[in-house]
Write a structure and sequence with these properties.
The chain has one domain (27-90). The protein contains four helices and two strands. The chain is of the alpha+beta class.
């Protein structure tokens, strides 16, 4: 649900310009949890995190990282974070 990923997957020339490969993909956390559950995992937690973009200039990393941690706590808004933390136990 990250806006950058939506653009990358739907605007045909973008993946080449930003050096994405054809095999890169995006995940929805609820679909990931459902897939893990369907293959025998339990205690599944899939949590969005990370609003720090690789192109953030070095002097702003601390500030953007701190803001990202706050955004990760806001329902709905956290869904556009750039990464997922996935935890599960195999049955």
């Amino acid at each position: 649900m990250n806006p950058q990923i939506v653009l990358e997957k739907n605007v045909k020339f973008l993946p080449r310009r930003i050096h994405n490969t054809e095999t890169e993909t995006a995940f929805f956390r609820w679909a990931m949890a459902r897939s893990l559950s369907g293959t025998g995992f339990k205690n599944i937690q899939v949590r969005p995190f990370d609003f720090l973009h690789p192109y953030v200039p070095d002097p702003f990393i601390g500030m953007v990282s701190a803001m990202g941690k706050m955004l990760e706590q806001i329902p709905l808004l956290k869904e556009i974070a750039g990464s997922l933390v996935i935890q599960a136990q195999k049955s």
